[in-house]
Write a structure and sequence with these properties.
The protein is of the alpha+beta class and about 150 residues long. It has a single domain, classed as Gcn5-related N-acetyltransferase (GNAT) (Aminopeptidase, 3-Layer(aba) Sandwich), CATH 3.40.630. The protein has a 4-stranded antiparallel beta sheet with strand order 1-2-3-4, sandwiched between helices. A hairpin with a 2-residue loop joins strand 6 and strand 7. Helix 1 packs across helix 2. The model has no long low-confidence stretch (mean pLDDT about 90).
């Protein structure tokens, strides 16, 4: 079965938070120590109150990924590990429209390679986040043809 995409709904907030947590625990295992607790309450709160758009990927009635964006900023893109390498992340990124900026953990090389394959480049700006370093990535959007 191939996951289908649909707009997120407020009732998806808990499932979105669960996908975020499950994916982060694997993707960031080499960055954050295993004894460090995942910020579950903050993550749930974030997705309950997110003011932008969320598009979710479902297989059956189970959320397996999502993308969150607002204006030109990509806020999150998470896909459950069993779905990595199957094109779902690329599909989710494509529905985010003309996003041009995101922050990615410096040591999350898998994510950085993914974004770079899609035309994103680090712009040299960094910041601390959760006791780790995040890098800002930008992507140039080609102008719409006239006519």
């Amino acid at each position: 079965m191939t996951p289908s995409l649909r707009p997120g709904r407020p009732s998806d907030a808990e499932a979105v938070a669960a996908v975020h947590e499950a994916t982060a625990r694997v993707a960031y295992a080499h960055i954050f120590p295993p004894e460090r607790p995942f910020p579950r309450a903050a993550t749930r709160r974030r997705w309950r109150t997110f003011g932008g758009e969320i598009v979710v990927a479902e297989e059956g009635h189970r959320l397996v990924g999502f993308v969150a964006f607002a204006g030109a900023v990509l806020h999150a893109l998470y896909v459950l590990p069993p779905y990595w390498g199957r094109g779902l992340g690329s599909e989710l990124l494509a529905v985010a429209g003309p996003v041009q900026e995101l922050w990615v953990l410096r040591d999350n090389l898998r994510a950085r390679r993914f974004y770079e394959r899609h035309g994103w480049r680090a712009d040299g700006t960094a910041r601390e986040a959760f006791s780790a370093v995040e890098m800002r990535y930008r992507r140039a959007i080609a102008p719409e043809p006239e006519g």
